[in-house]
Design goal:
Elements lengths: L3 E3 L19 H4 L3 E3 L4 E6 L3 E7 L2 E5 L10 E3 L4 E4 L4 E6 L5 E7 L1
């Protein structure tokens, strides 16, 4: 079960005819998601979650919380970010190659 609500246009918003197996990137079929170069997305955690970068680098800006101010982060492959329940992050691929990431329950 997904623990995030994507607040930007996503694969789920495409017509079902466009969501064929060939339209779904291989990384998504393996349990990871891809973000294209120049694409930004907003995710809001339904429960405590972990964003893990699998490939490429992502630029992440979490919303400020009572405990932490908002700050820009760059995560590289193997790095992760804990996201509190209800917290929103905005992320985009850091360079022109895109990135692959997973979003799992903490």
């Amino acid at each position: 079960m997904s623990t995030a609500v994507c607040t930007t246009e996503s694969l789920a918003s495409l017509p079902s005819s466009a969501r064929t197996a060939s339209a779904v990137p291989p990384a998504v079929r393996r349990g990871a998601w891809q973000i294209a170069p120049g694409e930004a997305m907003s995710l809001k955690a339904r429960s405590a979650s972990v964003l893990r970068v699998k490939q490429g680098r992502v630029w992440v800006t979490p919303d400020a919380t009572a405990a932490n101010a908002s700050e820009d982060l760059v995560l590289a492959p193997g790095e992760s970010l804990n996201v509190a329940a209800g917290q929103r992050i905005v992320m985009e691929a850091w360079d022109g190659y895109g990135a692959t990431y997973s979003w799992d329950q903490a």
